[in-house]
Amino acid sequence: MYKKAAKAPQDLIRMGMLKRNGYSAIGACSYSAAASGRMYLQDHVLLVVLEGTYKIRLGGREYPVRKHEMMLLQKAILIEYDKYGNSESGDLLDYMMFFIKDDLIQDFFKLSKYTFPVSEAPVPLAISPIDERMLYYAASLKPYFQEQEKKEDELMRLKLLELMFNMGEANQALLYQFLQLKPRKWSSIVEMMENNYTNPVTLADLAYLSGRSLSTFKREFRQIYREPTFQWLRNRRLEKAKELLTDSGVSVTEACFASGFENVTHFSAVFKKKYGLTPSAMRAARGQYE
C-alpha cells in the first residue's frame, strides 16, 4: 500500500526536536511499538540507533541499522522504513536523526583541515558501528530535549560540529561520504526528472539533484521541455496516476501518493480538469472492461 511520504525534518516536529534559527535539527525518538512508512529527506541525515532496529529501503536494497550502528543518507531522496524494538531490550526503539545542511558541512571541513585524495568513485552507502565516544556524545544530548527554552542558536551549531568531529575520529569512511554529499555535476536532466518526479520535490531539490544552480536548471529545463517545471511535474504525475488507476486498480488515495501528489482533494480536482473524469470514475470505468 502506498502511503503519503513524510517530509523530514519538516513533518517531524511532533518528535523531540532541537532546532534553532535555521540550523539543522536533531531528533530523538523512543518507541515501544513497531512503525513503518515513507520519508522524503529535505536535508542530509545521520541516523544513529541506540536500541532496536531501523530498517531502510532505498534503491531496491535494504539496510537494517541495528543497536549501536549508524548510517549517513544524502538529502533529496525518498526512503521507506520499518522501525521496531528488539525483544532482548524490552521492545524499546531509541534512535537519533541528525539533519545536516550543506553550509554546516562546509564549515566543518574548513575548521577540521581534513584532506583527502581526489577520487571520482562515489563512496557506497554503508552501515557503520558506533564507538564509545559517539555513545557518550548521544548521551550528552539527552538533557537538551528537556530544556527546549534554554538552548542558544550557536550551541546548536557547535553540537553538530562536535558530532562531525567525533565521526572523523572514529570512521574515515563516513568522512569520505560527507565529502561527497553533493550531486554529480551535469547529470542528465531528463533521466533525473524521470527518477524523481513522484517524490515531493521542490525546484531547489531538482536543481541540487541535477548538479546545477537554480537559475541554470530552470533555463535548461525550459530548453528541453518547452514548459515550466511545475506544469511538467503536474502533467507527468497525472499521467502516472491515470496509469495506476487503469492498469493496476489501486485506490484513489494510493494513486495520489504514488504519483507524487500530497493532497487527495487537490489531486482529484486537477485530475478531473485534465481527463474529464474524477479518479474514482476513471477507476470504476476500468472495472467495466475486465
From TrEMBL:
Source domain of life: Bacteria
This protein's UniProt keywords: DNA-binding, Transcription, Transcription regulation
UniProt keyword Translocase present: no
UniProt cross-references to PROSITE patterns, sorted A to Z: HTH_ARAC_FAMILY_1 (PS00041), HTH_ARAC_FAMILY_2 (PS01124)
Any single Pfam family the record assigns to this protein: HTH_18
Annotated HTH araC/xylS-type domain residues: 187-285
Entry protein name: Helix-turn-helix domain-containing protein
